[in-house]
Amino acid sequence: MDVGIDRLGFYTPKKYIDIVELAEARDVDPNKFTIGIGQSKQAVPDVYQDAVTMAAEAADKVLDDDNRNDIGLVIVGTESSVDESKATSAFLMDLLDLPEDVRAFEIKEACYGATAGLQMAYNFVAMNPDKKALVIASDIARYGIKTPGEVTQGAGAVSMIVSQNPHILKLDNKSVYMSRNVGDFWRPTFSKTAFARGKYSNEIYVEFFTTLWKRFQEKYDMTAEDFDTMLFHIPYTKMGMKALRTLDGQIPAAHYDKLVEHYQKSIEFSRNVGNLYTGSLYLGLISYLVNGNVQPDEKLMLFSYGSGAVGEIYSAEVVAGFDKYLDSEFIKEELNNRQKISVPDYETIFSEELENAGITKLEDVHDKFYLSEIKESERLYKKVN
């Protein structure tokens, strides 16, 4: 029985800033941000948006009357959780009209959480082939105004419905993984922004990839030439290239050039959205499927990494006819129709938040799902009818 991704949905806030303008405001050479880091635009979430609302927006794009009642598992991977006790997935139950007979919970391990959820969903569907799983990656990457990590911020969510006989991506059930206690990135419970050792994190990322890639080849007797495309966790678009470059000179030049060409297609959306944390790898997948010259039955290698640290390499296969089940034009229109805001406006939004007893004015809402109020420190959400 084949198990994999049957539907893919994506959401990002409707506002963004231009990275050149951010560089100029920070008195930095724009090439450092646009070429050195590899970013062009950065999504800016509104005050009424958080991991819950973005998860709902992304999931709403893949749920319909035909699959909603088949959902038996709901997992949200996030490191932007809004509550230390209540899972993001619990808030989604009524927002998305989901059935009650599901397991719903949240996974946190930096940017790896959604991959853990996807692997759990695979096992769930394999054991319950009449059921489907909803896996969502939803995050707001925040480092702070005028910090070194500011250029790698972003926001958005990716949703995946996992089922038997999938229409988009078949998972091969081949993977290798590893975990270590690493101090490359962390966000204490008292802080709304992350702390990072940037150069060290880059080094660990590449080390995890090279170690896991060697193990994958040994375990499954496969090489880079067995894969048409390699997809990476991309908190900024030059990050994955650091790992891919380790293959330069180690594999035939023509195949390496092909992998680089496909990689460039996988980063087009991330370049214009920014860091999605748990969703970064899967936005890369969407970007490649939408922008690449994808052939039926293409073999993919996917590298997932979450600081702290957990890494995994697994393989998958593109399903023939996938384009009929992925609304590429809608996704491109969503990205093209966003509103550019100024750097000062972004700074204002960044510093604002809904306080306890605060209420969101409906006229300020430009999305379907929103944080409506905070009452007795409880976050309450609504859906625009």
Which H/E pattern describes the elements? EEHHEHEHEHEEEEEHEHHHHEEHEHEE
Distance between the termini: 40 Å
CATH names the topology as: Peroxisomal Thiolase, Chain A, domain 1
CATH architecture: 3-Layer(aba) Sandwich
The CATH superfamily turns out to be Thiolase/Chalcone synthase
Largest sheet: 9 strands, mixed
Overall spatial form: globular
In the CATH scheme, the class would be Alpha Beta
Number of domains: 1
Poorly predicted tracts of residues: none
Structural class of the helices, strands and pairings?
A: alpha/beta
What count of helical segments does DSSP give?
Answer: 12
Strand order of the largest sheet: 5-4-6-7-1-8-13-12-11
* Helical residues, percent: 25-40%
Strand elements, count:
16
Radius of gyration: 20 Å
Mean of all residue-level pLDDT scores:
96
Q: What percentage of amino acids are in beta strands?
A: 25-35%
GO biological process, one term: acetyl-CoA metabolic process
Binding site for (3S)-3-hydroxy-3-methylglutaryl-CoA: 29, 143, 242, 275
Family: Belongs to the thiolase-like superfamily. HMG-CoA synthase family.
Pfam family, one: HMG_CoA_synt_N
Describe the structure.
Belongs to the thiolase-like superfamily. HMG-CoA synthase family. Keywords: Transferase. The protein has helices at residues 19-25, 30-37, 51-60, 88-95, 113-127, 198-220, 237-244, 253-266, 268-271, 280-291, 328-336, 343-351; strands at 3-11, 15-18, 41-44, 71-77, 103-107, 132-141, 154-164, 169-179, 185-186, 195-196, 229-232, 299-306, 310-318, 339-340, 369-375, 378-383. It has 385 residues and is α/β, with parallel strands linked by helices. It has one domain: Peroxisomal Thiolase, Chain A, domain 1 (3-Layer(aba) Sandwich). The strands form 4 sheets. The chain has a 9-stranded mixed sheet with strand order 5-4-6-7-1-8-13-12-11, sandwiched between helices. Helix 1 crosses helix 2 (30-37).
